[in-house]
TrEMBL record:
It comes from the Bacteria. This is ABC transporter domain-containing protein. Transmembrane segments: none annotated. PANTHER family: ABC TRANSPORTER ATP-BINDING PROTEIN (PTHR42711), ABC TRANSPORTER ATP-BINDING PROTEIN NATA (PTHR42711:SF5). SMART domains: AAA (SM00382). It comes from Floricoccus penangensis. GO terms for molecular function: ATP binding; ATP hydrolysis activity. Belongs to the ABC transporter superfamily. It holds the Pfam family ABC_tran. Gene3D superfamilies: P-loop containing nucleotide triphosphate hydrolases (3.40.50.300). Keywords: ATP-binding, Nucleotide-binding, Transport. InterPro entries: AAA+_ATPase, ABC_transporter-like_ATP-bd, ABC_transporter-like_CS, ABC_transporter_ATP-binding, P-loop_NTPase.
């Protein structure tokens, strides 16, 4: 398990990561979610041993994060690629592979297949499309069969098809090889699949829990109910007055804790139509900070 305790980073008077505690268990998908400038990259750079914390500790068993043993156990994909634009995909990958000991060939072959890189091997990395580059970047970060894969906003700038493609590959590989993923993102839909989410704003972790628990705690679902039976509509309105609003004489909008409550209301409502919208992670952020995540 990777554990960060009371981790802070200051630049002069500016505290960009403030007293953060977090844990990364094995075979878990952890998302660190926050707006631009929240401190996500700074946090990840400390966890991968690239940046010295101003205070606090990070441990991985008995390894220190700046040790070479630790670096053999992790993989990192940075926001901007660090591969050589002028070298072929193959040379870029083999150059990296040489740095690791005891990696079996079958793993390398498997990565080439999973990330669909065979037909790109002789292309110069610099000539690839954004989506192709990211596939190479991520395959490269997995060459050492890492126990933890860190992804710092890996899909920024990619279109939805490429984002989905990359996540399909990653989730499949994670199921097979059981590594942990630590993702920073401001794409909400990417963190929906996480086992645990840390929400960070202005350097502070403002909430941390499973997606389900965060939604239960911070987000209301919305039931929009249409009925011609005004007596039934008024009865429901009176009962849920604090959480409901009449849109017109036939339509009531009610904020609820979840689907079960909506079902109960619908049973009693003599409805002709309804819509049920579950709260999203974006709503959690909105509830916590009063602002949109991708503002
Ligand atoms: N070397 C540095 N010197 C001074 N300030 C820095 C330095 N690096 C980062 N910062 C500041 O720290 C804050 C957090 O930056 P960081 O890059 O960690 O945020 P982020 O959440 O990753 O943002 P983004 O989503 O835009 O990448 C920002 O206000 C940034 O300007």
């Amino acid at each position: 398990m990777l554990e960060a305790k009371s981790l802070s980073k200051r630049y002069g008077k500016n505290i960009v990561v403030n007293n953060v505690n977090l844990k990364i268990d094995s075979d878990k998908f952890i998302a660190i979610l926050g707006p631009n400038g929240a401190g996500k990259s700074t946090l990840i750079n400390m966890m991968i041993g690239l940046l010295e914390p101003s205070s606090g500790q990070i441990t991985y068993g008995n390894l220190k994060v700046n040790s070479s043993e630790y670096k053999q156990k992790i993989g990192v994909v940075f926001q901007d690629s660090i591969l050589d634009e002028k070298l072929s995909v193959k040379k870029n990958l083999l150059y990296r592979l040489q740095m690791y000991k005891n990696i079996d060939d079958s793993w390398f072959e498997d990565l080439l297949d999973e990330f669909m890189l065979r037909e790109l091997l002789n292309e110069n990395y610099g000539n690839l499309s954004g989506g192709q580059k990211r596939r190479v970047d991520i395959a490269r970060s997995l060459l050492n069969k890492p126990e933890i894969l860190f992804l710092d906003e890996p899909s920024t700038g990619l279109d939805i098809q490429n984002r989905k493609l990359i996540w399909d590959i990653l989730i499949k590989l994670k199921l097979k090889y059981k590594f942990s993923i630590v993702l920073t993102t401001h794409y909400l839909e990417e963190s929906e699949a996480a086992d645990f989410i840390y929400i960070i704003d202005k350097g502070n972790i403002i909430a941390s829990d499973s997606v389900g628990n965060l939604k239960n705690e911070y987000v209301k679902s919305i039931l929009t109910l249409k009925t011609k039976n005004h007596e039934s509509l008024n009865r429901i309105y009176e009962k849920y007055k604090a959480f409901s609003q009449k849109k017109d004489e036939d339509t009531l909008v009610i904020k609820l804790d979840g689907a079960r409550q909506a079902y109960k209301i619908l049973e009693d409502a003599d409805w002709i139509d309804f819509e049920f919208q579950k709260g999203t992670i974006d709503d959690i952020f909105l509830t916590l900070t009063g602002k949109e995540l991708r503002a």
